[in-house]
Every structure is written in C-alpha cells, then in structure tokens.
C-alpha cells in the first residue's frame, strides 16, 4: 500500500475520480507521481491511496496555522478560494487498516466526500478551541505568490462502494463536526449492501 496525495492532479477540472491519471508537474506533485508509478510498476496488485489535507488533534500543522493566524493580527491568511477534501487522521487510519487486510488493488481515494476551503477548515478547527472564526484573516490565493491548483475535489464514490466504512463530511451535522474535531474516528460501520 502506498499513500499519495491530491497533488498529482492539476486542478484544471476540479473533480477527479479514481480513474484519473496523474497530470501535474510541480515538484511535490511530480514526486508523488513518480512514487505512485514506481509502486505500481514494482507491484501490480498494490493499492495507491490518494488523500488530501490530513487533519489531526494536538500538534496538527493545520491547527498550529489556525492558532497563529488568529493571534497574528494581520500576518498570513487562510484562503477562501483554495478548496480541498480534508480527512481526519483517525478516519484515514481506520480506512487504511481496512484496506490493508482486504484484497483491494488499484487507486483509491480516502477523503471526506465534501469539499471546503482552507478558511472554512480553519473555522471548523477554531470553534472547538474557543477561537471566533471572525479572528481568522481571510484572503484569496489567486494573485498570491503561492502556486498550485486552487480547487481539487476527489470523488470518493467508487472507493466508498468498496469500503465497509464511510466518512462523515465535516459540515454534515454538529455531531459529526464534533467527532471530526475530537479525535474519535468518524467512520461509521455500514453494511456492504447499503
């Protein structure tokens, strides 16, 4: 099993399913593309897992950025036009474990099914920590010095049909948001027939 990222796609189409071939050249995306290619050439039955922003509790880099942004009084900003499908590390680990003991092969996507901006993600992280989202500086990535795709949404439909676990999107409900932020796995078991 190889864990890759959404950096292998250009963002030109915004929605990508598991059949999409890597199509991005910048260094991080190129490195992930090379690693995916090598793994699949060396082991044809390998599972390549593409994921997106991975959120955790405590020392998460995303949490540190949110806290620093809220405290910085104008330094830095969270982009409202940079859209991804984040996943909590506990959810990712649960799905990876399921795949590790299965006979799955090929490219699979392990992210939440709904896309949110980095600013919206920051607000979800801020609220449980007592930080008002209004304290988070917002900006646009368009026109900034930061290169890369703006809107990358991984369509997890095919992967979800192959898994016995399902991710709850961060915005679905107050309960799922709480579970998503609390560190508890928010994958709920479901029947393979549902």
Q: Layout of helices and strands, plus pairs?
A:
Layout: E1 2-5, E2 15-16, H1 27-42, E3 47-51, E4 54-55, H2 61-71, E5 78-79, E6 83-84, E7 87-88, H3 89-100, E8 106-109, E9 116-117, H4 118-126, E10 138-139, E11 153-154, H5 157-162, E12 165-166, H6 174-182, E13 188-189
Parallel strand pairs: 1-3, 2-11, 3-8, 4-7, 5-10
Antiparallel strand pairs: 6-9, 12-13
Provide key terms for this protein.
194 residues; single chain; 32% helix; disordered C terminus; alpha/beta; 6 helices; 17% strand
Structure description:
The chain has 194 residues and is an alpha/beta fold. Helices cover 32% and strands 17% of the residues. It has six helices and 13 strands. The strands form six sheets. A three-stranded parallel beta sheet has the order 1-3-8, sandwiched between helices. The chain has a two-stranded parallel ribbon with strand order 2-11. α2 (61-71) crosses α4. The longest helix has 16 residues, at 27-42. Mean pLDDT is 79; it is low at 171-194.
Question: Can you summarize this structure?
Answer:
The chain has six helices and 13 strands.
Per the principal axes of the C-alpha atoms, what is the gross shape? globular
Order of SSEs, N→C?
EEHEEHEEEHEEHEEHEHE
Strand content: 15-25%
The main pleated sheet reads as:
3 strands, parallel
Number of strands: 13
């Amino acid at each position: 099993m190889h864990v890759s990222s959404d950096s292998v796609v250009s963002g030109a189409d915004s929605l990508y399913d598991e059949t999409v071939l890597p199509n991005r050249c910048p260094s991080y995306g190129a490195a992930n593309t090379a690693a995916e290619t090598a793994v699949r050439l060396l082991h044809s039955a390998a599972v390549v897992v593409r994921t997106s922003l991975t959120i955790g509790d405590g020392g998460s880099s995303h949490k540190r950025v949110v806290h620093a942004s809220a405290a910085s009084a104008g330094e830095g900003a969270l982009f409202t036009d940079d859209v991804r499908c984040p996943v909590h590390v506990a959810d990712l680990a649960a799905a990876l474990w399921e795949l590790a003991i299965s006979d799955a092969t090929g490219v699979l996507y392990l992210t939440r099914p709904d896309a949110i901006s980095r600013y919206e993600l920051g607000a979800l992280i801020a609220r449980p920590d007592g930080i008002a989202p209004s304290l988070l500086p917002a900006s646009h990535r368009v026109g900034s010095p930061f290169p890369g795709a703006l809107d990358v949404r991984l369509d997890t439909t095919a992967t979800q049909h192959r898994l016995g676990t399902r991710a709850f999107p961060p915005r679905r409900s107050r309960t799922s948001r709480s579970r998503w932020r609390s560190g508890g796995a928010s994958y709920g078991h479901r029947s393979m027939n549902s």
